[in-house]
Amino acid sequence: MLRFMRPRTVKQRFRLWIALAILMLGLSINIAFYILYQQEARAEALRNLSDKLSLQTLFIDRWVQERELDMRLLTEDEAVRTLNKPLMEKIFRDFTLLQREFSSLSYVNADGITEVDTYSATGLQVNERDYYWAAKQGKSSMSDVVIGKATGEPVIIFSAPTYDKGGRWTGLLLGSVKLETIQRVVGSLHSGETADFYLLDRVGVPVTKPRFIDDVRQNSRPISTDITRRAAVQAVSKEAYANYKGDIVFGSYQWIAGHRWLLVGEVSKKELYVNLYGLMLVFIAITLATLMLSFSGIVILTRRIERPLEFLLQGTRIIKEGQYGYRIDPAVFKHAPAELQELCDTYNLMSRKLKTTVKLLEESAMIDPLTELYNRRYMMQNGNQRLLRALAAGYPCSVLLIDIDYFKQVNDTHGHLVGDRVLRHVAGVLQRQTGGDELAARYGGEEFMVLALRLGAVQARALAETVRRAVAAEPYEADGVRIALTVSIGGAACTGLAEGADAKLLLEQMIEEGDKALYRAKQLGRNRVEWESGPPGDG
């Protein structure tokens, strides 16, 4: 033993000191890892909770806003404004079938008595409820967790006041949302097995089911823990606390829905640290194994790791430069450890998905979501470049600006939903009449634009007449509504860029000329095509 501790040769001393250095390094790493892991695990858990709470807050706030919008849209329906109760009940039932977020819809008259209800018999009196008085004051509202009079189950009530055509208050609409629905909304964003997210109303009664409650419908008592007390005074703390069941957890919270709901995220301290002891054993084993490995083994291992890592690093640099679809050849990792082979496969998969995602994002930024035509941004960014290339190749080009005649009357008469459908209808007609080098776009509102890259004034004017006749020949028809449509079109053509002109502004100049022609078409009676002389170098 003493001979081993006092080596006589350089080789023995080298091995001893390397072994001791590895052993001390391993012990230091294990101790430091144990301390840092606890701190980092807690910090990471709180960061993840905060990020997920922020995401869920946005999601739930958006969900609440959509339900409030649903109620407001229903109050504007003709049947509601005229108190056509049979039609109102049919609309409510159809709506609950299509929009499954609401379990029932009800109409309550000005005296606080239900007259239309998709779930139960009418005649229930609700004038003692807060939402009745809010509606009487002209306010929409969302209730706390209440026991539904018809179902006897805890629900959330969305309400909105109703008015007749003369603007007189006639009552309110109620939309009941079961707690299971909100549980599904919150649960759709859950990730991982350790974190628990749940909603409480402002007095602490569960709106969704925490893991420590079997059935939220049977638990109407307020929850009082450190996290709810912190939330009450807007306090922030990173310390662990006992949850409702008594388990030690780390938690975070956010108030949402106008300070009516409290969203709580918790992660068990026991579950958070469950991997720590196993990782410590792994680290010790690695330290001992490293001590027994010879330098030749270390050299081989480093060679097998170093070269693949260089390829991975090179790949990240290439992606950083914007080549999102770059792929690493798996043959390079043929003799690498299995983990690095998996990392290579994962890198290639992520690279492919990243390229697809970036492409979809770029496309979505250039497409109008309502009509699925190109949008104004696409035309102004890419249209001018394509216009200049076509002109440089010797092709004449034209711009058509197309405006739907009397579109405001469509919105005023039939509502904005029908107006949107009319826009899609006209866009469909425009798509069928254009193609190839004719780029159709929604320019804004009820105005469309066509950039004809290889058509001069004569051909473009013929195209404009074709579009005008096609729109007039295809009126909008749906759900018993028939709307005759016409369009006014203004056009301008260009055969080349004049000397000294600003190439970047060429498309804007053509649009300006086309807009003048469109204005003239409107002034001359609509449903016609007018042409304007284009910018310098026009056709």
Description:
The protein has 539 residues and is of the alpha+beta class. It contains 16 helices and 18 strands. Strands 1, 2, 3, 4, 5 and 6 form a six-stranded antiparallel beta sheet that branches. It has a six-stranded mixed beta sheet with strand order 11-13-14-12-17-18, sandwiched between helices. The protein is flat.
Describe the protein's topology.
Elements lengths: L1 H4 L4 H66 L2 H4 L3 H14 L5 E6 L4 E4 L12 H7 L4 E2 L3 E2 L6 E10 L5 E10 H9 L7 E7 L24 H7 L8 E2 L5 E9 L4 E8 H4 L1 H19 L2 H26 L17 H27 L9 E2 H17 L4 E8 L2 H8 L1 H18 L4 E7 L2 E6 L4 H17 L2 E3 L2 E3 L3 E8 L11 H18 L5 E4 L7
Parallel strand pairs: 11-13, 17-18
Antiparallel strand pairs: 1-2, 1-6, 3-5, 4-5, 5-6, 7-10, 8-9, 9-10, 12-14, 12-17, 13-14, 15-16
Helix pairs in contact: 2-9, 10-11, 13-14, 14-15
The structural class is alpha+beta
Report the radius of gyration as a whole number of Å. 34 Å
Can you tell me the overall shape? flat
Main pleated sheet:
6 strands, antiparallel
Q: pLDDT average, as an integer? A: 81
Q: Considering DSSP H and I runs of 4 or more, what fraction of the residues is helical?
A: 40-55%
Uncertain regions spanning at least 5 consecutive residues: 534-539
Beta-strand percent range: 15-25%
DSSP, total strands:
18
Q: Gap between N and C termini, in Å? A: 101 Å
Helical stretch tally: 16
